[in-house]
Amino acid sequence: FTVLFIYFTCISTVQTTDCLHLKEQCINAGNGCESVWNVVEDACNISVLGNGCKAEDTVGCNRIIQFLADEYPEFKNCVCTTDDICSITTLLGKRCGINKDNISMETKLQWGLSALSKQAYTTNRSCLDVNRECVEDEVCNKQLSLYLKVCSVNKCNVEGCQAAIRFFYQNMPFEVAQMMIFCDCIQHDESCHRAKELLHGKPCAVPVVPPPSCLNVIHTCEENELCRRKYTTFRSKCWRHVTKKCYSDEACLETLIKDDMPCSANSDCKAAYISNWGTMLHMECTCQNLPPVEQPLCELFHHMLHSKSCFS
């Protein structure tokens, strides 16, 4: 028995060491992983020494850890995937303390947001109304508070804010995420426009002035593994005709016009579009001041990324 105990202790120590090494790689990778890790530390209240977890909201902590593993699969072996309520296992060498009272909060996260999610989805809902309903909902408000804390304009970290947006919208039930993403305001309703900026991460998550060309956005996205994965899914779910006919062949894409671009606009497409929130694909882009030869392809990309006609 003693031998087995020592063996498993050694295995656990090796796993912990490997996972701490992964954490260091994540922090130094420069691929957005550091930003997600910062959200993990914020949500889980991880100590400065990195050897403990004092999360008051263990469910929220566990969900952001699972989000880390989903976005960066190398962490899969560093989080548990079998417990009813998942938590840090080998990542920090000890578990986040699980308070069984928080099972009720997990139920709320899975089945909650009832006031919001039971409403039938309608287009062009007022962003002020949607924002107010989220604030009045205990679960939605808790998620929104973390996101707004990370995206504070006064101490804005763009990548951290984008990671928080991805986590926020991935955590929302699909109907609620739709209402938030596709909400709108009448022109002179300043309160509504402020609510819209809060829900959509502006100006922290999309600060580029002047906006980059849409060609640059696509090319930069394709150099980032996470963004490339989301863009590939978005293109296949929403713009199947493009994927089927041209794949990534830009010479072929240049031959297409908007009329050649039927958008599926189904639930899978909307989910893929929502998944783009919190990546560079969400940034405003332009086709102004480009050489004429680059205009057609740029306008095609702008249409794919920002045309609301797909969802109207």
Automatic annotation (TrEMBL):
Q: Which superkingdom heads the taxonomic lineage of this protein's source? A: Eukaryota
Please give the SMART domains that the UniProt record associates with this protein.
GDNF
Cite the GO molecular-function annotations of the record. Answer: signaling receptor activity
The protein's name is GFRAL protein
Taking every annotated instance into account, which residue ranges of this chain make up the domain GDNF/GAS1?
A: 19-96, 127-204, 214-310
Q: Which family, according to UniProt?
A: Belongs to the GDNFR family.
Keyword annotations of the record:
Cell membrane, Glycoprotein, Membrane, Receptor, Signal
Q: Under the cellular component aspect of Gene Ontology, which terms does the record hold?
A: external side of plasma membrane; receptor complex
GO annotation terms (biological process): cell surface receptor protein tyrosine kinase signaling pathway; nervous system development
Where does the signal peptide begin and end? 1-16
Subcellular localization: Cell membrane
Q: What is its main location?
A: membrane
The protein's gene is named Gfral
